[in-house]
Amino acid sequence: xxxxxxxxxxxxxxxxxxxxxxxxxxxxxTSDKTNKQLQNIIKRARKRVVKKKLKSLSEIKxxxxxxxxxxxxxxxxxxxxxxxxxxxxxxxxxxxxDTPLNYGIAVGTTIAEMLSVYPVLNxxxxxxxxxxxxxxxxxxxxxxTVEKLAPKNKSVVFNPPKDSKQDSLLQLTDFVAGAIxxxxxxxxxxxxxxxxxxxxxxxxxxxxxxxxxxxxx
Length: 217
Known about the structure:
This protein is α/β, with parallel strands linked by helices.
């Protein structure tokens, strides 16, 4: 296995267009393509801590979970050899539409931060756009952003976006995104403190400055 290659899983919280101050994107990475220990965290949570009324849900998310479930999942993540990259976009009080361009810039920026740590990233994302042309457009803008911001000779391989209901590692990444956005939008640090040792990059960027850099360099 190429020791320079990591497998990353990306999610965000909340939606880019939501009426909040900060938009948070994170990548959780592991050097193991099939990390069974991480993959089983959600399964164990369902058995041990998830309330009965939520067990029937096809997906467990940070937003819908109670305190006990959130803390359990984050503590389990913290046990394993993962690295977390977090980009926090300061929307500066603006309305930022959830378009392929805007989302592509946010995602590409986060990927570029991961590529400052590792030279090769194999990335899986939650499927966001239902229309095929929007998905293609988003991936194009994300790649263009990576090329502008990432160090030279670094690369990302995009796997086809997946429905997070079918990928437990994407569900874990949602819990990390929820913890980070709680810190910035709710001034609640206690979730992030659980995984703090796993965060290798936590970077704040102003939206207007970032978009200008990408769209009008």
